Amino acid sequence: MEIKLPLVCSIGFAALIVSASVALLSGNQAREPADNPPPVHITAEQDHQRMMDLLHIQSLRPGADPKNPDAPNAVNYDEAKVNHDALPDPLLLNDGQKVTTPAMWWDKRRPELIEMFDEDVYGRVPPNTPKVNWEAVSVMHEMNGSVPVITKKLVGHVDNSSYPLIKVDIQLTLTTPADAAGPVPVMMEFGFVFPPGFKWPKGFTPPHETGPTWQQQVLAKGWGYASLIPTSFQADNGAGLTEGIIGLVNKGQPRKPDDWGTLRAWAWGASRALDYFETDKSVDAKQVGIEGLSRYGKAALVTMAYDQRFAIGFIGSSGEAGAKPHRRNFGELVENVAGTGEYHWMAGNFLKYAGPLTPRDLPVDANELIALCAPRPVFISCGSPKVEGNWVDDRGQFLAAVAAGPVYRLLGKKGLGTDQFPPMETALIDGDLAFRQHSGGHTTGPNWPAFLQFASRYLKAPTAPRATASLR
Ligand code: GCU
Fold first, then answer.
1. Which of 78, 302, 317, 430 could cross-link to 267 by cystine, CB 3.0-4.6 Å?
2. Domains in the chain: ranges and CATH
3. Cβ 394 vs Cβ 436: under 8 Å
4. Residue among 295, 340, 343 whose CB has most ligand 1 atoms within 8 A, to mutate
5. Measured in angstroms, how far is the CA atom of residue 295 from the centroid of ligand 1?
6. For the segment 200-216, what is each residue's pLDDT rounded down to a tens digit?
């Protein structure tokens, strides 16, 4: 069973409370120091080497090099040089039997896939993850454009009584329309936080967007939006694996080879945010979607795949370890993600596929991760190769979505409806899997209107008369 439910969200809101403080941190008693050795502090390089030693790996192949076209490991952006390995059949049981009924999918194949993703790709969420107690640090009545909204700043205090030396607080902001007729659908984003003084790298043009923000587009539908800060509860680096939620559960010790990586930790946080939404009467928790870009696009897909309570996914430029097939030698590769800068996203066991084994030996691929979201709707989003580049492998992501289609169809839904790669800016949004390349760069921004058109088939704002909705 991959989802732990229910966790305690010990919070309630009274109307118009400006600041609530209802933290219920349970039993945070300090233990004797002898019981609790301090967290291990090692660099990402040391931890990576430690994992290689544990797995008896002598060396790893280098990742694709995007900078030097003459390098032996130069990145491949040439469709003619692609290996065209078939993606694994999501409807074939490990014993070779064909999955022919929804019951076989739910009872046999889905659990098999989850087990393989857990063991070799994203790692296992430990069975004893601590409770999260949500506190509203502020509730503000404000305007977003012309829409009156209520914004709650929330902190999810993770119970650290098992190891008080590590403190973990999840940062979440929720905004809902103030005049909602009832509980509203919410789109939650994995939010980037740029450190103070952050400057874009030289030569990099940040995406420039005009018109209403995505939050305003969501409000125009009568929905709400939320921002979850992944790095508030799990750092985006290997050195941080002995801290954050992964470090807390491991009592400050480094990971075992099948322990969860950062992507699953971020997805765990999204699930805890959804636990909170289930307790907040302004949110319709059955209509919560998840969106993310790039590494957070990977996290959004992992969230959707594992937690079936999420209603819809908007997966932005997720590339390798997201919607891009591991087997396809185009753009970023397994070998890049297995390197010291990115390995922390994954289970330690993932390193094996850049060492003695190859991506072809992976028992699963990205089409099966997308298939784990079935029958729920998923929108795969990319930018323009001319602006965003080819690192994220748009065509590969499309092909993975095509190859997830059989599972959607088995469950009575529609896949993409074509296996022909569409022209730029063509929204394939008539099925339950959707795909669109926008003409901008590394952002989901220009795809929000197409996503919202797709999502409007599934998420519905409340229509009850206002009088019934004294919910805030
Ligand atoms: C790097 C990395 C990608 C990742 C991206 C991002 O480019 O190789 O896998 O998606 O960073 O998160 O911005």
1. 302
2. 2-199+207-455 (3.40.50.1820)
3. no
4. 295
5. 6
6. 666 666 666 789 999 99
